[in-house]
Amino acid sequence: MMRGLICGPKCAACGVVLSTWGVIMLTMLGIFFATHSAVLIEDVPVKDDDIHQDTNPPQRIYELYNKVGYNCFIAAAIYVLVGAFSCCQMRLNKQKDYLVH
User: How many domains is the chain partitioned into structurally?
Assistant: First the structure.
């Protein structure tokens, strides 16, 4: 048994595909939140206090946009790590197949 081998080749390939899609999607979402896209306003956690009690309401909304965008970039970075792990698992599976055959 190979040391460090946790998942099989199909699971590792699935991890690579899903992490690639996750990085692309979350990076694009992060960019759209960072540019304060009006379409995404429903996904910004705005409370009534953020609008009514703030002296400069757009600035508070923009800060919330930036916070959500930052969270998207963090999630994309986590997907990069998952993708790297999946790639390592794919290589270990290929080495195992090479050694067995």
Answer: 1
